Amino acid sequence: xxxxxxxxxxxxxxxVFAPLWLVLAILIRLDSPGPVLFRQIxxxxxxxxxxxxKFRSMRTDTPNLSTxxxxxxxxxxxTGLGKWLRRTSLDELPQLWNVLRGEMSLVGPRxxxxxxxxxxxxxxxxxxxxxxxxxTGWAQINGRDDxxxxxxxxxxxxxxxxxxxxxxxxxxxxxxxxxFTGKGNK
Length: 186
Known about the structure:
Blueprint: H1 2-31, E1 37-43, E2 49-55, H2 67-73, H3 80-88, H4 95-100, E3 105-107, H5 117-125, E4 134-136, H6 138-141, H7 149-162, H8 165-181
Parallel strand pairs: 3-4
Antiparallel strand pairs: 1-2
Helix pairs in contact: 5-7
């Protein structure tokens, strides 16, 4: 049932946001050289790797690191428009395509990079990888980038135990509030 709801919501989202996608694509191309879409390998459902899509918010020479790892380098990887895309989470819109393809869900644990070994192993050990990764999730509305990998895993395990349609709707609603406040987004 969740997969059907995800599929239909992604289909509607792709249709509704198509004009915005066009505007964002033009703005990204005008803002900095490089592709409009950013593709990155992530670990998803049942530990399978897949290509995650985002609007490009960083310079093309940015190393392929997690947000925490990037912050530790002291680099300023974001383009002028990219800072705004990240703060508003509009960079995540292309993941509706990942949802449509069955690689992601609207709500679930955020997919990790393969290099985030401890988080991926923890998810495997605790059964979290049985969930499709989400565009948003319990950890996103409860700390997001402010969380350590251990805290993310804890929130993921809590979601695994508590998942329901009501919780998913609540997470989507709280995600919208989080987007407008920028809380926890780095």
